[in-house]
Amino acid sequence: MTKVNVYNLQKQPVGEIELDPHVFGAEFKQHLLHLVVRKQLAKRRAGTASVKHRAEVRGGGKKPFKQKGTGRARAGTTRAAQWRGGGVVFGPTPRSYDFKVNKKEMAAALRSAISRRVEEGAFVVLDDLSFDTAKTKNFTEFLARFELKDAVVVVTDVSGNVKLSARNLQNVTLLPPVGVNVYDVLKRSRLVLTTSAVQAITARLGGQS
Question: pTM value?
Answer without folding.
Answer: 0.84
